[in-house]
Amino acid sequence: MTIRGAAFIAGIYEHPGRDLPNHTIWDIHTEVAIGALADAGLSMSDVDALFCDGTAGFGVLTLCDHLGLRPTFVDNTETGGSSYLAHVGHAAAAIAAGKCSVALVTLAGKPRTGSPPVKWAAGPETGFETVWGTASAAHSYALAAQRHMYEFGTTSEQLAEIKVAASIHAQYNPNAFLQKVVTVDEVVNSPMVSDPLHRLDCCVVTDGGGALVIVSPEIAKKLGKTNAKILGHGEAVKHTSNGRIDLTYTGAVWSGPRAFAEAGVTVKDVGYASIYDSFTITVLQTIEDLGFCEKGKGGEFVLDGGLVAPFGKLPFNTDGGGLCNNHPSNRGGITKVIEAVRQLRGEAHPAVQVPNVQIALAHGTGGSLGSRHGSVTLLLGQEDA
Amino acid sequence: MSSLPNPAPMVTSSSQAFWNATAEGRFTLQRCTSCDVVVWFPRKHCPDCWTETLSVFDASGRGTVYSFTIIRKVANDYKAATPFVVAYVELSEGPRVMTNIVDCDPESVTVGMPVEMVFHDTGEGNALYRFRPVGN
């Protein structure tokens, strides 16, 4: 059994706020849930499954209580910013198994205006990784960027092209946190945060959130609108491998083939891709690992507007992505799915809408390329795909 | 740049012996006597074959820089020490360990650079293992 065609994404909602000082994270969860259900033509009382990460308090227990839900299926999968793509795959599997028929996925966070930072329980690695002065994801991702540069000759200017492409898209998004188009020079001359990553190699820090509604084929048919068909899902955890960590690739080398096999499509079929962009290096390694270009050639692939919509080789992140638009709760996974669905519906901004998208890919990377991370790849398509 | 702070690591029942040895200037590794793999970081079971037959030996303290970053700005105990280098060093015995590169200009660090281990006392019964360029 596969999940191909077993479920559809019927509702999407991205919170328009980027600074939300007067919301709690639970207020944001509620607003995005209502928004996505309204988009689907459903209501809170239709929901029979809830998916969220581990940051909402006591996960689904807190959120079911807060939203007044009594679902028959819940899932608290926590793989950082890739969690929400995993939730989509898990929701489709649960729907296929008859466990539920209307699944709600929500994300909310307030890193700008004061939700306390998530404090994870210590792991066995803690004593060996937290004493060296690293304090942000940038420090860890920089280690991956440096090694990629060493092995493949990737340059800061090539990484900068990724930010430039995102900024070209973000200028059309009135909600984007950064709407100004930037140049390669501006990126490489922005302050160095953690060599070789500059400030403009990093994603934005925004409050906000988003939600998805995933439904059974029967319900999708009744809703009678353009729904995104879930074609395939692959997930993987890449870690330090007992001291044999390799910083030059991501878990997409495993999650990608799993998703493509389930969907029965190849990279050549993908018309649009949402690629997780916590940092420019995250995008570069991911497009190599998903097979859009040869390993080590990502730097060449992104040149000459390779990622720019609508006519680049691989139009990506047309909302401006995490690099310019929104990275709510320091997690860009749900917005990746949302923009992929907009592209399939033809609802992206006209300046960046890719004509006639049949297959869209969304990829999430959560945790750190410099130690351990979750990779999740989704393939979505038109109803007849 | 001032010298780096020496924060005490979190110690568990599985890492106690490792950290105790650092107080004597020894960096120990485990080797699985069932599958022969060198294990990093210390633990009770081999992560490759899941047996408990792990032996302990003193590592050479030599290695090369696998990757590194120069941290320019940070809001923790290391703030006064910026810029400083965080790296993965590939030990001669194989494992790649996260650490700092010290006793050199951060701008002079390169991938592949040969390095040797130094120990910095935390004042709490153990020492942090860091690396400096060979021949410094």
Summarize the structure.
The complex is a heterodimer of chains A (385) and B (136). Chain A is α/β, with parallel strands linked by helices. Chain A contains 13 helices and 11 strands.
Structural description of this entry:
The complex is a heterodimer of chains A (385) and B (136). With 385 residues, chain A is α/β, with parallel strands linked by helices. Chain A has 2 domains: 8-115 and 207-227, Thiolase/Chalcone synthase (Peroxisomal Thiolase, Chain A, domain 1); 136-204 and 232-381, 3-Layer(aba) Sandwich (Peroxisomal Thiolase, Chain A, domain 1), CATH 3.40.47. Chain A contains 13 helices and 11 strands. Chain A has helices at 25-40, 59-67, 83-96, 126-129, 137-152, 156-170, 184-188, 217-223, 252-263, 280-289, 298-301, 321-325, 333-345; strands at residues 8-14, 49-51, 73-75, 102-109, 192-194, 197-198, 208-215, 228-238, 272-275, 359-367, 373-381. In chain A, the strands form 2 sheets. Chain A has a 9-stranded mixed beta sheet with strand order 3-2-4-7-1-8-11-10-9, with helices on both faces. A two-stranded antiparallel ribbon of chain A has the order 5-6. In chain A, helix 6 (156-170) crosses helix 10. Chain B has one domain (16-133). Helix content of chain B is 5%, strand content 38%. In chain B, the strands form 2 sheets. Chain B has a 5-stranded antiparallel beta sheet with strand order 6-5-4-7-8, with helices on one face. In chain B, strands 2-1-3 form a 3-stranded antiparallel beta sheet. Chain B is globular.
